[in-house]
Amino acid sequence: VVRRGASGERSYDKLLGGLLADGFDERSCRSRYQSVMYRRRPGRRPPAYLVSKLRQQEALQRRCGPGTAAYGHALEQLRSGKSGGDTVGAQDCRYLVSISYRGLGNRILATASAFLYAVLTGRVLLVDPSNEMGELFCEPFPDTTWLLPPGFPLASYTNFSISTAESYGNMLRNKVIRTDAAGDVPAFLYVHLDHDATEQDKFFFCDEDQRVLRNIPWLVMRTDNYIVPGLFLVPGFQDELGRLFPEPDTVFHHAVRYLFHPSNHVWGLVARYYDAYLATAQQRVGIQVRVFGSQPNSPELLEQITRCTQKEGLLPEVLLAAADPVAPGPSRKTKAVLVTSLKSWYYEKLKGMYWERAAATGEAVSVQQPSHEEFQRSGARSHDAKAWAEIYLLSLTDALVTTAWSTFGYVAQGLGGLRPWVMYRPDNETHVPDPPCGRDVSMEPCFHAPPFYDCRLKRGADTGKIVPQVQHCIDMSWGLKIV
Ligand code: GDP
To answer: Which residue in 320, 347, 375, 426 has its CB near the most CB atoms, within 10 A?
Structure first.
């Protein structure tokens, strides 16, 4: 939000309507307060109730976080394997450890999901520091750390998987835990909500199972998904979610802007690139071309990109080679196109197209791509820093085109508050989908591996039809998203 001060200078709402806490050292994390100067659109305003809940969560993180007496006590409990009774006192601290793995987009969706679950259930969120989580992002909570310190008693937690005996699904299956009888609760439990989660694992999204989980001091969660649409299916969370997010399509938008601030190194990549290549254009269009290192360059995909952008009026058509170029003039409009991809071929073709031919609108079109890393190398420092910078740059555009199924694009759209045009996934690699793309129904990410179970009726169900806020995604028909 840009306001004019008494003397006419621009002033910015650096705290994004109270979403961000005041009092951080600005130099240690420049992006936190500078990013607002790079956004043309102010983003959606956080509701007052959400703001107060975030301040409460920050207080909880400080009271119970690493280094506190409460944290030491909770670690002791975990080492002893006892939960200290079957009900937890209001003063006791309970924790959620989120495992960080896979690509950067997946990691951000997983962490944002864990955060929202922690807020809903009054848990302290601690993030596994693997894969550069401490290097890429600033600390989101003032005067404490969200990174799980070394020496965590569950030494092999990063290897927890579908077959871990302590997973909620396996404990249910093996009747170590039951939802219909009170009993001793363990000191910790593993919540497996990965793409391969079983039906039992996904009972997580049922009320009676949440009642069991509530009293367990330590939960360790693995997901590579945005599970929040599933939380909207849990009746016990619905009232609170409604108060926190009266506009349900803003859940991820608020969560991602609250939690993920590029570290100073990454912010340098973002700001220098923006200032040099994007700042002066009248309009910025982002095109995210998700390809895999092993795929050959695809003329069909290139055609899908041009058909989509021209049909939707995002990029101009080009004149025939022989046609008269439009005379240059001072009023010529400028458009900067930011392409992100592991490969440079698509960018080179687009750039060549607008160099060799004149735009039918007379616009001057520049096409840029910050990097082409060729292969995915998640966890490698400079690779992940570039990926994060490019996600962020995409979020600073005025119109965004994304690739179906990609969490990389989901993060950009949420940060930017953009409802993207999604390029559909072709059924067959040699065909350009028709239509090539469609406008997404909301800026929320798609939950790729949702439950297909109605907890109340205790049978399989179409979970896209249970509550009005949760529907199927346009890029993945079985996925769920908040609208
Ligand atoms: P998803 O696999 O598309 O859902 O997205 P992820 O972000 O989870 O994983 C893809 C990873 O591949 C990224 O995190 C990057 O490491 C790399 N990658 C994919 N596309 C790009 C790109 O356009 N630019 C850069 N720099 N890296 C990319």
So the answer is: 347
Is 254 a domain residue? no
Of ligand 1's listed atoms, the one at least distance from the Cα of 409 is: 3
CATH classification at residue 399: 3.40.50.11350
Shortest-distance Cα residue to atom 26 of ligand 1 = 387
The CB-side HSE value for 189 (13 A sphere, CA atoms) comes to 26
Write the CB contacts of 258 (distance below 8 Å, at least 6 apart in sequence).
Answer: 19, 20, 54, 140
Question: CA torsion 14→15→16→19, rounded to 10°?
Answer: 160
Per-residue model confidence as pLDDT tens digits over 93-109: 999 999 999 999 999 99
E strands, 78-217, in order: 95-98, 124-127, 188-192
Which structural domain range is residue 303 located in?
264-482
Q: Tens of pLDDT along 125-167?
A: 999 999 999 999 999 999 999 999 999 999 999 999 999 999 9
- For the chain, give the longest Cα–Cα distance: 82
Q: Is 335:367 a contact under the CB 8 Å cutoff?
A: no
In 3D space, the residue among 402, 473, 423 whose CA is nearest the CA of residue 300 turns out to be: 423
Domain boundary among 249, 277, 295: 249
End position of a domain, from candidates 218, 249, 280: 249
How many whole angstroms from 125 Cα to the centroid of ligand 1?
Answer: 25
- Other residues' Cβ atoms within 10 Å of the Cβ of residue 379: 16
**Ligand 1 atom with least separation from CA of 106:** 8
